[in-house]
């Protein structure tokens, strides 16, 4: 049988390259929420499943129910009484408007969600703000820069002696 004089082309290499590119794109991290201005903090994955640090009730003018959740490092620091909090500790505050329960009038229940606030401890990344980065989100989007400028100032003025953290552990 005579040999074919035409050069042979392989489609395996282009296909392998395309498959590798698709795999790399699929494996690349994708930001699920936009980052807060100033600090670059995002909503942490899975935060709704974190442990409760403490509930809170905010009277007028906000009139909110709040729950502060913590990742494992934050919970351990609270349980052990560790101050300052270790780098990697993350606190998330969920807030809702207070609403009277339709089923039981004396009870207050969560109404409309108002904000999700995040504090991330990273002393190298946030040395100017006591080692904490801040994020405030409404409907998953960060609030404007002016509102973020008030975060550290409020914490610094009121809870400097507790590593800039308001919430105490509810035992």
Automatic annotation (TrEMBL):
<dbReference type="Pfam" id="PF16694">
    <property type="entry name" value="Cytochrome_P460"/>
</dbReference>
<protein>
    <recommendedName>
        <fullName>Cytochrome P460 domain-containing protein</fullName>
    </recommendedName>
</protein>
<feature type="signal peptide">
    <location>
        <begin position="1"/>
        <end position="27"/>
    </location>
</feature>
<dbReference type="InterPro" id="IPR032033">
    <property type="entry name" value="Cytochrome_P460"/>
</dbReference>
<keyword id="KW-0732">Signal</keyword>
<feature type="domain" description="Cytochrome P460">
    <location>
        <begin position="44"/>
        <end position="167"/>
    </location>
</feature>
<dbReference type="InterPro" id="IPR038142">
    <property type="entry name" value="Cytochrome_P460_sp"/>
</dbReference>
């Amino acid at each position: 049988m005579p040999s074919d004089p035409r050069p042979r082309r392989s489609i395996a290499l282009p296909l392998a390259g395309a498959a590798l590119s698709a795999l790399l794109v699929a494996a690349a991290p994708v930001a699920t929420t936009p980052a807060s201005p100033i600090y670059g903090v995002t909503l942490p994955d899975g935060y709704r499943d974190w442990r409760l640090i403490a509930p809170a009730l905010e009277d007028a003018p906000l009139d909110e129910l709040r729950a502060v959740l913590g990742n494992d490092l934050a919970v351990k620091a609270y349980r052990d009484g560790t101050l300052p909090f270790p780098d990697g500790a993350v606190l998330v505050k969920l807030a809702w408007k207070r609403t009277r329960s339709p089923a039981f009038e004396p009870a207050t229940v969560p109404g409309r969600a108002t904000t999700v606030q995040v504090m991330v401890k990273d002393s190298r990344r946030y040395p100017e703000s006591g080692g904490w980065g801040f994020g405030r989100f409404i409907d998953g989007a960060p609030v404007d820069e002016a509102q973020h400028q008030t975060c550290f100032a409020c914490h610094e003025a009121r809870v400097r002696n507790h590593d800039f953290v308001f919430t105490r552990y509810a035992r």
